[in-house]
Write a structure and sequence with these properties.
Structural class: alpha+beta
Number of strands: 3
Shape: elongated
Number of helices: 3
Oligomer: single chain
Largest sheet: 3 strands, antiparallel
Radius of gyration: 20 Å
Strand order of the largest sheet: 1-2-3
Strand content: 15-25%
Helix content: 25-40%
């Protein structure tokens, strides 16, 4: 059922290849590659394929950051160094905020 869905979605969206891991209650229930990791050289996608994600990581980081802000875990006004190294006495007045 999952295989059929993934393959249909790949065909519909012209996705040449992907790797997927489904974890249920901390245990992997599906770890598999589909299609091609490299179309030019016909290299199959596997569960161990390393993909170049380009700037997608920035979107994930921004989304995760804002989720933590909404949950009150962090603040956009507080220096992140305080969360990374809580013992570090950071002068937040000298830090710059970029938006």
């Amino acid at each position: 059922m999952v295989d059929d869905y993934i393959q249909a979605t790949m065909a519909k969206n012209q996705i040449p290849g992907l790797s997927v891991a489904v974890i249920q209650e901390g245990e992997p229930v599906l770890v598999k590659g589909y299609g091609l990791a490299n179309v030019e050289h016909s290299v199959p996608a596997t569960e161990r394929t390393v993909y170049e994600i380009a700037s997608v990581g920035k979107t994930f980081t921004a989304t995760a950051t804002m989720m933590l802000v909404e949950e009150g875990v962090i603040s956009l006004e507080e220096a992140i160094a305080k969360k990374i190294n809580p013992r570090n006495d950071v002068d937040s007045s000298s830090s710059k905020t970029r938006r």
